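TASK: fixed-backbone design
INPUT:
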């Protein structure tokens, strides 16, 4: 029974050290995120998601590992976040942008659902209907455009909303990914 109690409770001094390390790592992460910008948590492109998950894993592992100091965790955390910042900055180069950011995909154009685009994005018609309802759309015919964005969100523009700066540009064909002004 003492083995079970030991496994549940552990050594109180190790728990205190873990608490101190996680607090120090939390403060370190907040400071580094503040210095590098909030992008990693604001919009989750694939490289942002990997960074967010890795940050959590690093903080959790370092806090509970008896063989890892705060300095070890902080060095890994800072390296990871700086690498993320480098990718964010390099995304201004077209070749890197194509690798780092998935293209947006046109899901609906003038009330017509593009099934191949839905499949490419891993969405069902039911998933699309849920998103449309969340945007207050009850009739598919009311949708001018629905676009699966690089961060995983779905933008919906209805026929009652202006589309683009000039009030209505034709979107690309559904076979082509939607490109922004810079790509």
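OUTPUT:
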């Amino acid at each position: 029974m003492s083995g079970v109690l030991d496994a549940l409770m552990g050594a109180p001094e190790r728990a205190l050290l873990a608490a101190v390390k996680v607090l120090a790592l939390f403060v370190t992460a907040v400071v580094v995120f503040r210095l590098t910008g909030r992008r990693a948590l604001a919009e989750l492109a694939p490289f942002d998601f990997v960074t967010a998950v890795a940050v959590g894993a690093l903080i959790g592992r370092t806090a509970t590992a008896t063989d890892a100091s705060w300095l070890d965790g902080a060095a890994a955390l800072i390296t990871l976040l700086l690498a993320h910042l480098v990718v964010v900055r390099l995304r201004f180069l077209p070749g890197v942008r194509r690798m780092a950011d998935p293209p947006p995909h046109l899901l609906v154009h003038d009330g017509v659902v593009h099934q191949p685009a839905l499949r490419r994005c891993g969405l069902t018609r039911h998933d699309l209907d849920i998103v449309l309802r969340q945007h207050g759309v009850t009739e598919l015919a009311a949708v001018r455009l629905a676009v699966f964005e690089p961060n995983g969100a779905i933008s919906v523009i209805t026929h009652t909303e202006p589309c683009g700066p000039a009030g209505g540009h034709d979107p690309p064909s559904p076979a082509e990914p939607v490109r922004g002004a810079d790509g």
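COMMENT: Confidence is low (pLDDT under 50) at residues 175-183.
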